[in-house]
Amino acid sequence: MKSNKEDLYYPKHIFIETVGSLCTTNCIMCSRDKWTRKPLIMKDDIYEKVLQGFMPYLDKIEKVSFFNYGEPLLDPMIGPRIARARELGFRGTGISTNATELSEDKAKSLLDAGLEALICSIDGIEAATHEKIRPGAKFNEIVDNILNFIELRKQHQARTRLIVRFTAQQLNIDEWPAFKDFWLSKLDSSYNDIVFFMRVHSWGTANDDFKSQDTFGDGGAYICPDFLTKQYIFADGSAAFCCADCNGTFKDLGNAAFNDPIEIYNKAVFKKYRQYMQKGRINELDLCRECSIPMSRCNIVEYSPNGSVNKFEMGKKFIEDFLKSC
Ligand code: SF4
Fold first, then answer.
1. pLDDT of residue 326
2. Is 107 helix (H, G, I), strand (E, B) or coil?
3. I need a surface site. Which of 5, 210, 293, 294 has the fewest CB within 10 A?
4. Is any ligand 1 atom within 6 A of the Cβ of residue 50?
């Protein structure tokens, strides 16, 4: 969001990837086959420097997520790292996981750390569907892991919100109604739990099979909510351009462990992209014109066990806020 006083943009949501280029599954809609960075778990000193770099901007940052291109539960220190961020005052901590590593010990360490939101990605109600979309995952194990997490959350009297995320695509769209009903019966609105429906996307141009996976077709979306509100830091501390920049090759941006992350976020190239989006000229941006992430973000629907349905919240609200701030 833009600050009139200093004419700077600040991310509302930062992503610190503590596990880079390392995952337990090989999902068909992922850009994983394009990853070229060496697998890496963030070193402690880099982690601390990155957190310290964002400290002067704590009041602007609403959420901090500990994932990007990798499975975050492969980080043996993920619980203590979340606890450290919370100790420093970061709010809205969250991770997104494929739940393959969500063991009892890991679950307890996340709950003890005070994690605010756990996103679990499941892409079917049938084991065969999920395992086809997410090779490497064992459906029954991950469902058990998530149900155990719900039980442990109660025992620990923790407040972690659970978000069960479904990435809609040709292979699973018919299972959506049964999927939604099943998970809504397991979740609890007193924790603000939700089932989260999102549309598969192209990861810029990295998902070669996007067109055959997609279920929506074209739909105009001229502003990228991710780009305008989020900032991504890789496991070595270097800054990504956006969530489609899986290898850090889109632009040369510097390292948030050694440079001010807000200076990075206000480099000329960011300004240029923001201006073009503001004017509805996203199709003139070389990196964006074939990226379907904006359309995916504008097709999000959140379902609560209490019956409420929140459509397009994420994409639309970000766009409205952005246009108001221009
Ligand atoms: S639309 Fe552009 S800025 Fe947004 S994620 Fe795609 S490539 Fe990145």
1. 54
2. helix
3. 5
4. no
Mean pLDDT, all residues of the chain: 92
**Axis-axis angle for helices 78-88, 104-113 (nearest 10):** 10
Q: Are strands 230-233 and 239-240 parallel, antiparallel or unpaired?
A: antiparallel
For residue 215, the model assigns a pLDDT of 74
- Give the Å distance between the CA of 293 and the centre of ligand 1: 6
Q: How far is the CA of 304 from the centre of ligand 1 (A)?
A: 29
How far apart are the C-alpha atoms of 126 and 24, rounded to whole Å?
A: 20
**Contact yes or no for 149/118 (Cβ under 8 A):** yes
3-state secondary structure of 277: helix
The SS3 assignment for 231 reads: strand
Which pLDDT belongs to residue 323? 64
- pLDDT of residue 5 exceeding 50: no
277 lines ligand 1 (CB under 6 A): no
What's the rounded Cα separation, in Å, for the pair 208 and 290? 12
Give CA–CA dist 283/222, Å, rounded.
Answer: 8
**Cβ–Cβ under 8 Å, residues 148 and 198:** no
Name the burial class of residue 60, with classes exposed (0-12), middle (13-18) and buried (19+) by CB atoms within 10 angstroms of its CB: middle
Share of the chain above pLDDT 70, in %: 91
**pLDDT (0 to 100) of residue 6:** 61
pLDDT for 18-33, tens place per residue? 999 999 999 999 999 9
Structure tokens at 258: 């050694």
Ligand 1 pocket, residue 244 CB under 6 Å = yes
Give the CA angle between residues 233, 239, 244 to the nearest 5°: 80
Taking residue 148's Cβ as centre, other Cβ atoms within 10 Å add up to 14
pLDDT higher than threshold 80 for residue 170: yes
The protein residue whose alpha carbon is closest to atom 3 in ligand 1 is 227
